[in-house]
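User: For a benchmark we're assembling, each entry needs the component sequences followed by a predicted structure for the full assembly. Here are entry 17's components. Please fill in the structure.
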Amino acid sequence: MTDTRERVAERVRADPGVHFNELVRALDLAPGQVQYHLRRLEWVVEADLYGQTHYYPPGYDAGERRALALLRRETAADVIALLLEVGSLPATEVADRVGIARSTLSWHLDRLTGAGLVAEERDARNRVVLSLVDPEGTARLLQRAEPSTPGRLVDRFTRLVDSLLAE
Amino acid sequence: MANEWVLAVVLALGGLGSAGVVGLALVALLQRRSWSYLLVTLALVTLGARAVVGTFSLMGMLSIPTHHTAEHLLDVLMAGLVIAAVYTARTARQSAAESEAERSYGGDDD
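Assistant: Structure for entry 17:
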């Protein structure tokens, strides 16, 4: 196996769910080179999720791959980390404690509930209460998910715009 | 002459900076696909357009009065786009609340 291919392989193992662009940037290779080596690495699992192509080492099922793609987003990871800490919490309080606008939380929740990571229930006062479906499994995945720098910037940009536009 | 160099550097920095911000806004727009994000993105595009107008006049392709009119027109456009973004954020939330009553956060806080 060539050196370059070993570097691509190492990066995919270290960063499950890494994007194609992130591989190109982090390894300082040409896109064609990365594409070539990814195709030769037969164990690499490719998944198109939320408009981007992600690459995974073996050992993650479809649900876990989806979860890793979401947990790479800083705000989603913040919400999950808070729920791991406190168990369950009303949605309005989650937004306040993470420091995001409700519209930001709502957008991330659509995906987190859709992927089966977060459950929404109504309490006696008819408030939406959030909790994790599988706290141990999600905590394990959260440790592996690392947001990329451009991903972080986009995430923070949407946080800023949402909070500026919220009354 | 020295002044022109300073202006060229400032224009280049402004162009690069606004290109970066517009790039961020475009990715965010692709994720959110809302009117508010479209308007915010267009408002940031007017920032980049200022650098383009500046470059044209530095190259002597625009007269100073035309340059000034264009820059201030872009200001008007940016203000209008930001106001429209704020306005649509409110109406979009209202219609979302009406159509998705089951997903509103409810409770005593709202």
